Every structure is written in structure tokens, then in C-alpha cells.
């Protein structure tokens, strides 16, 4: 097996953003009259982290449809204030640097962020964005993770075959998407909110540098 195409999720895989997005979501929901116990907040946070915002609200349920876009806008605005607190996960820059220096290897992104958020946030704020030659966001496909469509598009855009590609992510939806796309998967348990859900990954990453063993 020769892996030439490394495709990455962002949140929980490259940067630590769990505390940026999840507490903020429930603060906003409370402002709109939706209240949850600490146990419910923890459960929902772990289930929806890393999927598109609209799908997160639909999963939580019992939220009025005519309020969803307003809630999403308020969530984006509140999270933007905290985004400066997001940090690149230790070891990620060094891992990306080494992978990028391998002959014939290309690095890309598949994320549940929309294109504007990717360009104006991740691409602008994080120096590691320089390592990625292509990106597929939630704006480019109709179906999102856990469907494989975004990863399939990433492989098509990069001219890569499933057998020479690998998707790196930290959630069960990432793993399901890779399986659906027919490609390899590496489970990043080093910053996963629910590592037990991806313990059966084809490759298990206890630290970012473990990905360097995949060749």
C-alpha cells in the first residue's frame, strides 16, 4: 500500500475547537429558551461536534424550524469571539511538515465548515493551512459526513484513487464517511471527544506523529 493522498478533518484533528463551539451552542440555545441538563449538553455535544450546524440542531431536536437560521447565525457570531482561543494540536505542524516533504504526496481537507468559514477562519488564522493543496467544504456537496460524498469529491479533485488515499478524523461520522467513500481511515483519538467510537479504525492515532507510520 502506498498512500499518496492524505485528507484531513479540521476540528479535533488539526485544531482543538471543542471548547470554542460546544459550550457556545448551548449558551445560545438558552438565550432562545431551550434549556438542557449538564448531562444532556455533554451527550449532544459529543454527538454533534464536527457536523454542519443545521444538522446539529436537527439532531438535538425540538427546535422550531423558523428559528434555526437565526440560532445558527447567533452561534456563529458567539463562536467567532472565542475562535482566537482555538489552538493547533501539539505535534500537528511537525507531522504535516514531514508528510508534505514526501515525494508525490499531497495533503487536503474535507470539513463540515462552509467555504466562507474555511477561507476566512482556518485559512486566515492558522499557518498550517499552507500545507493543503485542496479543500472540500460543506458548501461543495449536497450530502455531508457521515456520507462519503465529500471525500469522494476530494479524491476526484486531487486525481487520487481510494486505495492510495486516507482520511484522518476524530469522530465516528468521519470513520463512516471514509468507509462509505471506499478509502482508508485513521482515527485521531489524541483529541477526540469520543475516542471509544473510533477504536476500531483501520489505523489508530494516539498522537499526530503516528500518522507518519502510514506509507
From TrEMBL:
This is HAD family hydrolase. InterPro entries: HAD-like_hydrolase_sf, HAD-like_sf, HAD-SF_hydro_IA, HAD_2, HAD_sf, PGP-like_dom2. It comes from the Bacteria. One of its GO terms (biological process) is DNA repair. One of its GO terms (molecular function) is phosphoglycolate phosphatase activity. Keywords: Hydrolase. One of its GO terms (cellular component) is cytosol. Pfam families: HAD_2. It comes from Candidatus Limosilactobacillus merdipullorum.
